[in-house]
Structure to design on (396 residues):
């Protein structure tokens, strides 16, 4: 541990980074509402910290957990944070590997108990527990400069009681016996010490540490790989008419499923519906307007809702079509954080379309960060224009 004599409040450090925007982003991506998501996160973080305390309660478990923390801290990008892990699907999915490895068969019971206590789906609870595991380990590793097994064991042991007190009764009861994790059960006991009881079933090999490192490297690579999804093929760009011109006239458009969509002539929805009905080659790009996000957020602005409704109506009328959602940001912040934000905004749009009946397998996403600005980033108006989302039709 570092030279400080004070013990950091790990639960408080993690919770302080769970902002309303993180809660809203995770809720959209998992198909839950914000209130239930807030309740779930208030349970998942202390659940994970209690489980980690149990792992670190023995010398062998504390040594193992210290190695895991060092591996994560060494391999995660410097801009990673609690918010970027909990608020992104990639961060949560990678964390589930850690959570499952540390809790074993008890993990599913913890997820079920969290789901029942907070009113979310069991799969959502499992993903949140994974995200909380990655977030907690990252926080510990970055808060304590030179973490050692005994210091980790002492710190988590001292705070375990507070972790448990934050849990609903049914969840807390799962930790009543202080049972060690499967990780400890598979670590050989040193010579001269009592053998650690092993659970029934095949013995696991020591593959967890390499898997953790691989998962951490994937966290670095995922934003880059997603950004590379943008095809090298020439894209047909259909320009939107100015809003004031488009507002002069609306036109009813008959869709092949029998619905009629009334849109502003020349608007993005008008052009998208016209393209879908035609024979022009794909891909074709449409910059949605109005379609914007609040500053540094995945929260859609109120006027964007109608635009997304129009897009969903058109996509439902052409059920074999496929699209890619591409999001861009302004230049405020670092390129890495803007890349993550744009990726999460695209995932948010995909999630909202899924809630409107669009099969998620028809939608891919890409985040392009602050690349390709269409206006000056020196003014608020320009920055708002650069925070945009494109729909690229990739197939009919």
């Amino acid at each position: 541990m570092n030279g400080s004599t004070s013990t950091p409040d790990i639960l408080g450090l993690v919770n302080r980074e769970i902002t309303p925007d993180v809660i809203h982003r995770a809720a959209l991506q998992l198909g839950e509402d914000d209130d239930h998501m807030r309740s779930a996160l208030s349970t998942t973080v202390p659940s994970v910290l209690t489980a980690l305390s149990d792992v670190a309660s023995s010398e062998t478990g504390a040594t193992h957990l210290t190695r895991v923390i060092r591996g994560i801290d060494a391999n995660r990008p410097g801009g990673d944070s609690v918010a970027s892990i909990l608020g992104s699907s990639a961060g949560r999915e990678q964390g589930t590997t850690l959570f499952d490895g540390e809790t074993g068969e008890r993990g599913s019971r913890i997820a079920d108990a969290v789901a029942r206590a907070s009113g979310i789906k069991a799969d959502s609870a499992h993903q949140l527990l994974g995200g909380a595991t990655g977030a907690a380990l990252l926080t510990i590793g970055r808060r304590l400069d030179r973490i050692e097994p005994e210091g980790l064991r002492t710190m988590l042991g001292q705070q375990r009681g507070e972790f448990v007190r934050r849990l609903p009764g049914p969840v807390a009861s799962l930790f009543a016996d202080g049972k060690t994790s499967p990780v400890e059960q598979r670590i050989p006991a040193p010579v001269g010490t009592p053998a650690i009881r092993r659970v029934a079933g095949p013995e696991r090999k020591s593959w967890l540490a390499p898997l953790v490192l691989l998962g951490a490297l994937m966290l670095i690579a995922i934003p880059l790989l997603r950004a590379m999804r943008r095809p090298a093929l020439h894209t047909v760009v259909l320009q939107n008419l100015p809003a004031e011109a488009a507002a002069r006239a609306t036109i009813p458009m008959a869709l092949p499923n029998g619905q009629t969509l009334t849109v502003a002539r020349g608007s993005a929805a008008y052009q998208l519906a016209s393209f879908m009905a035609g024979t022009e080659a794909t891909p074709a790009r449409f910059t949605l307007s109005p379609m914007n996000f609040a500053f540094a957020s995945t929260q859609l602005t109120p006027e964007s809702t109608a635009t997304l409704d129009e897009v969903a109506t058109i996509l439902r009328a052409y059920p074999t079509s496929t699209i890619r959602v591409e999001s861009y940001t302004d230049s405020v912040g670092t390129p890495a954080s803007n890349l993550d934000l744009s990726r999460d905004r695209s995932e948010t749009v995909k999630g909202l379309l899924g809630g409107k009946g669009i099969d998620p397998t028809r939608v891919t996403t890409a985040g392009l960060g602050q690349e390709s600005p269409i206006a000056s980033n020196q003014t608020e108006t320009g920055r708002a224009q650069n925070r945009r989302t494109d729909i690229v039709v990739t197939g009919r």
Notes: The beta strands are 236-238, 250-254, 260-264, 284-287, 322-327, 363-367, 389-395. The radius of gyration is 24 Å.
